[in-house]
Amino acid sequence: MDKIFYGTAYYDEYLPYDRIATDTTMMTEAGHTVIRIAESTWSTLEPQPGVLDFSHVDRALDAASRAGLDVIVGTPTYAVPAWLVASYPEVLAETSTGRGRYGARQIMDITHPAFRLHAERIIRALVDHTAQHPSVVGFQLDNETKFYDTASPAVQRSFVKHLRTLFDDDLGALNEAYGLDYWSNRVDAWEDFPDVRGTVNGSLGAAFDRYRRGLVDEYLGWQAQIVREYARDDQFLTQNFDFDWSPGWSYGLQPAVDHFSAARTVDVAGVDIYHPTQSRLTGKEIAFGGDMTRSIKDGASYLVLETQAQGQMGWLPYPGQLRLQAYSHLASGAFGVMYWHWHSIHNSFETYWKGLLSHDLEPNPTYEESGVVGREWAEHGQSLLHLRKTNRVAIMVSNEALTALRWFTLETGFIDGVFGSSIGYNDVLRWVYDALFDLNVEVDFVPPHVEDLSQYAMVVTPVLYTAPESTLATLRTYVEQGGHLVSTFRTAVADEHVKVWHDRAPHGLTDVFGMTYNQFTTPDGARLAPAGRLADAVDGTPEARTLLELLRPEGAEVLATYDHPAWGEYAAITRHRFGAGTATYLGTMTEPEVLRDVLGALLRDADLWSWPQDLAGRVTVRRGTNGRGRELTYLLNYSASTVEVPSPVTATSVLDGARVTEGDVLAVGPWDLVVLEG
Amino acid sequence: MDKIFYGTAYYDEYLPYDRIATDTTMMTEAGHTVIRIAESTWSTLEPQPGVLDFSHVDRALDAASRAGLDVIVGTPTYAVPAWLVASYPEVLAETSTGRGRYGARQIMDITHPAFRLHAERIIRALVDHTAQHPSVVGFQLDNETKFYDTASPAVQRSFVKHLRTLFDDDLGALNEAYGLDYWSNRVDAWEDFPDVRGTVNGSLGAAFDRYRRGLVDEYLGWQAQIVREYARDDQFLTQNFDFDWSPGWSYGLQPAVDHFSAARTVDVAGVDIYHPTQSRLTGKEIAFGGDMTRSIKDGASYLVLETQAQGQMGWLPYPGQLRLQAYSHLASGAFGVMYWHWHSIHNSFETYWKGLLSHDLEPNPTYEESGVVGREWAEHGQSLLHLRKTNRVAIMVSNEALTALRWFTLETGFIDGVFGSSIGYNDVLRWVYDALFDLNVEVDFVPPHVEDLSQYAMVVTPVLYTAPESTLATLRTYVEQGGHLVSTFRTAVADEHVKVWHDRAPHGLTDVFGMTYNQFTTPDGARLAPAGRLADAVDGTPEARTLLELLRPEGAEVLATYDHPAWGEYAAITRHRFGAGTATYLGTMTEPEVLRDVLGALLRDADLWSWPQDLAGRVTVRRGTNGRGRELTYLLNYSASTVEVPSPVTATSVLDGARVTEGDVLAVGPWDLVVLEG
Amino acid sequence: MDKIFYGTAYYDEYLPYDRIATDTTMMTEAGHTVIRIAESTWSTLEPQPGVLDFSHVDRALDAASRAGLDVIVGTPTYAVPAWLVASYPEVLAETSTGRGRYGARQIMDITHPAFRLHAERIIRALVDHTAQHPSVVGFQLDNETKFYDTASPAVQRSFVKHLRTLFDDDLGALNEAYGLDYWSNRVDAWEDFPDVRGTVNGSLGAAFDRYRRGLVDEYLGWQAQIVREYARDDQFLTQNFDFDWSPGWSYGLQPAVDHFSAARTVDVAGVDIYHPTQSRLTGKEIAFGGDMTRSIKDGASYLVLETQAQGQMGWLPYPGQLRLQAYSHLASGAFGVMYWHWHSIHNSFETYWKGLLSHDLEPNPTYEESGVVGREWAEHGQSLLHLRKTNRVAIMVSNEALTALRWFTLETGFIDGVFGSSIGYNDVLRWVYDALFDLNVEVDFVPPHVEDLSQYAMVVTPVLYTAPESTLATLRTYVEQGGHLVSTFRTAVADEHVKVWHDRAPHGLTDVFGMTYNQFTTPDGARLAPAGRLADAVDGTPEARTLLELLRPEGAEVLATYDHPAWGEYAAITRHRFGAGTATYLGTMTEPEVLRDVLGALLRDADLWSWPQDLAGRVTVRRGTNGRGRELTYLLNYSASTVEVPSPVTATSVLDGARVTEGDVLAVGPWDLVVLEG
Description:
Chains A, B, C: Keywords: Glycosidase, Hydrolase, Metal-binding, Zinc. The structure is a homotrimer. By secondary structure, chain A is an alpha/beta fold.
């Protein structure tokens, strides 16, 4: 790509009257270069089985062509038409709460043959119809695909067959691996296998979710294969990945898809990233989502297929924020930003998930600001494109740990909701990620099956609750060979079947950490007493949160103990030199500021502290090397006040062309930024 | 009617032993004049199919006759007998959560033929049996009728047939009007119409509710027709309407019935009104319910068929409150007050929804206070009866707007509960109503299809989110010809199909309001900066609530802007002279006191400020003209302290016969009142 | 028994590798004497229908035998195997929410013939296999048995047949007793009886629960009969009773079992008691559960079959607490304490309900502390065993009142959740129990059908909402003959059919209490104004809580009135001399401290105040007579600080053998205790 992708999802289908010429003109005036079409419009494309109507597609392609806009065509399968469900009700996923009703999207069993047959027909017809159009630059497969809690009898039968393979038909091995003796849950004949939806066995439940994440890989692979039969070589395939949405925005690791494995199917990783804005805009979600999406394709640039324009009720950007957000995506490595969506829809469900245009379809301040971005990008694209990062810090993330910690929550030890609620995997992941972000430490994400970590000076494993021996071996080798490992509480607790290890904790790593423990509990008022090199870095005795592992050092340096009448003898944070590296272990959670202080001290020890860390708290720094091979530095101001910082580099200020010498004072306005090249 | 209806619902069926003679004696001693019987006692009247037993009815009629009490006979249909459901389980409504179980009342499909057949038989038998009894003065049709979320296949088929008629069999028109293209929801063959219970389309969902409100009209009309075959000309037909009950009392507009259209069926509007009491007695619910019930029958007097005696756990009235409440109903235009119910029931479900008598069936302070009321009314009835009001202010209310705002809530833009909760239509309606009540401004309610508003000096439209063009035209004409229109945020947003208008907002009224906007968001800390004529009326910079519409004046005077770093350039409240009238627009919500100040300023401008407004905050004023053509003024003290006010009129104090001259100091005791005639 | 039972539940089945020799060695080293096996392991014992595998049982028996440990064998029936449900899905209980899914335990219909047939087969085989083993000292029948909300058609048919018997086939009598006329719920043909799960009739609903509690008695009796065919005379039968678990621990009376009647089936009452610990350890749950379990077998010693070792996340005991807890059980009359469970389980559901050993199966501080207990008990068992109590105070408890108050909650008058939530029966029971505990007053519990209360100087009836006339007569006689009765609000409200009495309240006891009332409400800010002998005992005007009964004395002394503008004339607490005794009535609830003051004053009046009450607030006193006929006094310190008290007796300090003279200062350390004998 030689220009930044900038545009919107465009639905000619949803517009109340014909205004496509006006719309494409407004787009080009705003510097837009691309639209995404057809995604989720199956019933318009095929109003009755086998009756095809590509008129909206053709209108969009023609108008785009005339306006010089590129087009990404989405397969329409993530929302099934009424006629399909009317004829085949069993296409609706049967979930843990039973069979749903037709209406929403993402409600089908993605393995059901009737769905697959009809989906294949419309995909073939649409891709065949559009692939040769010169404006079409790529295809999106489905949208925000997940497994939708499908648990039909057919899916369960196939899961049991998968288990037969996994355990080589040995039920005894399965009973032992999953601990099914407990509460009389043993299965001693395959045909007795109970409905998994009722299980209380966390190992079995987690295995079912892992299996179902595999269904997503298979489904996307199947779509990719079909589309590739038609697509030109210069057209890319992508998927719109999305994240755990629990607080109402793109928050953390996606529970229902393994992004690392699903991403193998596509040429380009696409993503949707939604986040709080206005006074709550911090840049964290944009950076988190971007770092993740870049990481799942080995550092390649990615495409933000959806992000908010005016968005939901509280997301109307303040002046400057839309532009700041757009640059923030590029600063994480995106090669394009596309809004969902061009126009606000006048009916149905997402009427108040607003597009770039309001319901009146006239220009408005948000659209105008998009034009500022578009024109800047047209001018400065070559400086901004093809950003590559060489981060020294990685965070290991695990779908399996996430799922396991829903069965055994951190604060209760039970399934969430039984005996109370608890924070989850993503809360700890974000606790770690956000602290590093606040320190201007950029990170990659790595999966548990990574084989070589040597490119990283520091690796953090937040709550890596469950992992195979091989992952633990990788971590051991990493430290031995000079890496700095930082693990939190509840790391290396259970094997890949979510069976808790029955030897000393943390399993297989007690010598690496120079520490062990076999008791843990909730805080009950405990605080941290910093010690050793943390004594200066951390103020006072901050609160210990979530849980306390009662660590007993065996060679490790104690960085903090518990300030508590009963647990004062135990360590809370330890650090150990092992081989050529170090291994730090956090036995409890803290308020964010304390973790920042702790990580800051560890970064200094590991010689990773540099000028971005000195700027932390004043301006957000994101860096990389652009397509011209020059160092690109973003200084982003996520605040309503102007910030003044000394320039960390001697460079050209991309957006105003000014020459900046290291040490010059740079003023970054409210919700504004500076990009330095060279 | 030449005397005030005063009495209770009486259930001889539920009493633990025969004491009907004692009861009717106690009633007449307390000045009661009427009882209501038979409502909800189907299984007693017809213990087995076709086996009739009117003994309790006959006992009640005989005892009433002996005691000189009038009787209202209720058809018993709102609670179905076990034998009906045992034989025809499908009589139970199939709702959005499936088919229920027998037990509660109001659980049937009011359209089901088996229900209708058996209901008709018992109605005919009961009315035939009682109509000629001289004590029977009227009939109540069913009770608190609603559509009970009925969504059986038969109801849905009939809804689809209704849509075929509405759209003249044109599915394309329906798809466009409802925006069904979105998320692939198009329907291109009528036989593909999906189960409406699953829909995510707010237009379709709202249409289904509107259709089902029509079922209530049809059902009540059907009962009315049957009863009228038997009723004497001097007997009235009524229905016990009730209100939105969301906080646990009669709170706002009823979502499941269109009272304006349903009221056409009956001769007399009946109503139940329940409300907080003790330290939380304000008179607002009594006034609100009364104003609504009077309005749905064009200002005619109405009958409070149910209100609390001792009521629920926290509703035992303080000394004086039962009497104050009783007069409050008359002050809104009621011609009678009936308690639910005479005696507290000893079993089942509403054992602690207590009657006038406690479970011991002996006199108690509440009963005694009822006697005070009864005797006063016997003496002063002619002063109090036939109250007519000629209010200068009206509030336009809309079931359609209420429903639409459940699909698109004010604070989230989504269905309530998806991405958070929100205040609803009735919260805004009550915000407006209560502020006017606090200002001693009495109001009528008008429906969206009102044709002429010229009798009103001021019309308020709280969140009139959806309305047909004709309603907007009526409002335009109203202002043009000199009316003072006050509209809140989210008025004139969508058409009658809940499709958001695609031109400038507020649709069709931008010239009337001299203002437009196309962006809005949540407050995020915004406050109001009063300006112009509001600068003096409103103190400080009060909080802006719920949402901010970013108003851009086009000729309007700005009465307030937003005090907010990003939105300071926009107006929050505007006022515009248009034709001979004015149009004020409130772009945000405020705390109640601020709205009172704003409305106060507008009332002064419109020359509507008079002495009741001067008394506001000290004593509640309710007025009208009584049957003798004299001005009747209630001064009601909803507080635990005595209040002294100068008499606003020269008149007779009805209850003590004293002559009062304008300006005389009147002391109104705690939870007490003064009624002035002439 | 000549030694204290001390041990754990042991599951060889769940262990990840063979370590039974190590385990039993660790047990004996810790002074353990007993294990419980086989409970809930049906699928291991019978992996396929009729295929038996007792290898784990044999391993455990052999190892126990070698180590000199006693064994309790549990029938495995409380968790059904997958194969049973696969063949007979209807074995799963059909509850108010429908049929569940296989997975959890306690999900079957305990009356289902397929369950009974297979349960009988495995019980017979297991007991036959183990009964003659010399290490087996007893059998546990099932586990924590309840009726699991079973409401299948068969159970409902049998319930209706039960009603036919109860009402002598007279439907009219049933309709009247239950008040089914209300809301048209009459049943006039037995075959019309509706699904009870939908009922809104509290009388019918309560009768169904009472009937289902009877199913538990029948089921346990059936198991007992089978086991007794095999058990030796020296082997006992027990059941593991448990309590209402609503806040997440053993909190109050069990709603689903009548412990008094179910206990008749067994030789020894067993119980599980779980409770907060760490900073929230108070001893109250241990004492409450112990007093209850002792009471249901007429004061006999009982066995704590389950209590926490490391327990749930927040239950890891502080140093000293495990020991203090163990002694606390003995102090209530237990003859043994068994932890659930030996080792922490590595998979499934209760992975974090931790045993004495952590997942690493190594010694840890909790295990070590258990060894301290075990060795002390081995040494001092003869002083501690066979404790008998002769308490002077009793609390009357009622399953029927508990159930009724779920239908008619104290604060709302409705089913919990309809129009708000409310505290329940057990909250009031614990309010009373805890106040007495805080006063060091030990109590027995008595059921409503107790015939003679003369052994007690004081009897308290917390919210005895429903009771037959006979119970009220027992209470009357008790007072008449010199007893001191203390009743709370909502006592003697309804008959045994939960029909509210229709005469003056409290029914049948107005002369006993010298008081009546017929109105009550919620507090709305009311406070208590102490009077008479309470004027000095209670400080200030404490808050009145939950509800106010407006008491009108008829001869009673007023101990408190309401401090409230409307209710000041009514009494809140009254006391009346009747016959040779007194009757005190509390018309409202208070904060715990106030109830303690009130009860303190009543104890002084009744001459029940002694030295334990003088020590109250400093140290917890529990007493009895041990097997050697000597007075045993426990001074327990549930706090983190050392407490010094004068010795109340001259005795031997059991644990250190010191001789103590009355008045000597005893220092009781944090979470420590002193036991005095003689």
